[in-house]
Amino acid sequence: MTSRIAVVGATGTLGSFIVGLVERTDGLELHAGLSSRDDLDGVLGADLVVDVTHPAVSPGIVEHVVRAGLPVLVGTSGWSAERVAKLSTIVADVAGPGVLVVPNFSLGSVLATRFATMAARFYDSIEIVESHHDGKVDSPSGTAVRTAELIAEARRDLGPVAAPFSDQRARGQQVASVPVHSLRMRGVVAQQSVILGGAGETLTLTHDTLLQSAYEKGLLVAIEAAPTVSGVVVGLDRVLPLD
Fold first, then answer.
1. For the whole model, what pTM was predicted?
2. C-alpha R_g of the chain
3. Going by C-beta distance under 8 Å and a sequence separation of 6 or more, which residues neighbour residue 219?
4. Are the C-beta atoms of 19 and 30 separated by less than 8 Å?
5. CB count in 10 Å sphere of residue 85
6. CA within 13 Å, CB half, 18
7. Domain boundaries, the chain
8. Bridge partner residues of 73 (DSSP)
9. d(Cα 133, Cα 232) in Å, to the nearest integer?
10. Going by C-beta distance under 8 Å and a sequence separation of 6 or more, which residues neighbour residue 59?
11. How far is residue 104's CA from residue 185's CA, in Å, rounded to a whole number?
12. Which of the four CATH numbers 3.30.70.1560, 1.10.238.10, 3.40.50.720, 3.30.470.10 does domain 3-101+213-239 have?
C-alpha cells in the first residue's frame, strides 16, 4: 500500500531533501509539496503531513493539520516542553491522529543522546556545546533542548546539575538546569558534544553530522511510525527499538 505524504516547508533545505526521499522510496508518494505560505488545504487527502518549516509558524501549521484530522510528523526545531504541552491539549481535544515530534532524524544523534542520559546519573557537572551552520535561525537547537530535558529526567532523583556562575551570560543558556552553548558558523552542518565532569576525569560524547544523508534512515523510520502514534510523542528514540 502506498502512503501519500504532504510536506510543508518543501522549499527549504530539509524539506527539499524529504521530497526527494519520498519520490525515490517505494511505497511512498508525494501528495503535495507546500511552502509555509501556501494554502494548507493542499495537504487534505494525505496519509501523513510532514512539517519542516520555521519555529515561528510551525505551531500554527501543526494545529491546523491536527484539527483537519491528519497525523503529523514535526521536524521543525524549537518545540519546547511548553509548546509540546499546549499541542498535547489540542490533540486530546480533537481526539484524532497523533503527532510525532522529532528534534533530530540522525540515528547517531539519537544514540549519542541516549548514551548521555545513561551517563548523567554518574556525573554532576554536565554541559552541552552545539554547533550548526550560520543559517540556522534558532538556538539552542531542538536536539540540545531535548538532550538537556532527558538528562534532567534521568537525574530526577539526584537534583539539577552543578552549574556555577550560571547568571553570567557567557555561561550559556540553562535548559532544565543544563548549560547549553550554541555556535553558528560557516563550514558546519551540525555537531553536538555533551561534556560530563567528575572527580579527576571528563567524558565527552560528540556526534557530527557531515551530510544530509545521515537523516535518511531516521526519516523513513519516523514516516512509517508517525501515523500509528497516539497523542504527542517526542523523539525518534520513542519509535526505535533501543531498550
1. 0.92
2. 18
3. 18, 21, 75, 105
4. yes
5. 10
6. 33
7. 3-101+213-239, 107-210
8. 50, 100
9. 29
10. 83, 86, 87
11. 19
12. 3.40.50.720
Per-residue model confidence as pLDDT tens for the chain (243 residues): 899 999 999 999 999 999 999 999 999 999 999 999 999 999 999 999 999 999 999 999 999 999 999 999 999 988 988 999 999 999 999 998 999 999 999 999 999 999 999 999 999 999 999 999 999 989 999 999 999 999 999 999 999 999 999 999 999 999 999 999 999 999 999 999 999 999 999 999 999 999 999 999 999 999 999 999 999 999 999 999 987
Q: Which fold has domain 107-210?
A: Dihydrodipicolinate Reductase; domain 2 (3.30.360)
User: Helix (H) and strand (E) counts for the chain?
Assistant: 6, 11
Grid-cell match 563550514, residue found = 187
> Nine-digit cell at 4?
501519500
Contact criterion met (CB below 8 Å) for 85 and 112: no
Would you name the residues annotated as active-site residues?
Answer: 132, 136
Nearest to 86 by CA among 77, 99, 102: 99
Identify the residue whose cell numbers are 507546500: 34
Reported as type and span, the H/E element at residue 201 is: strand 201-209
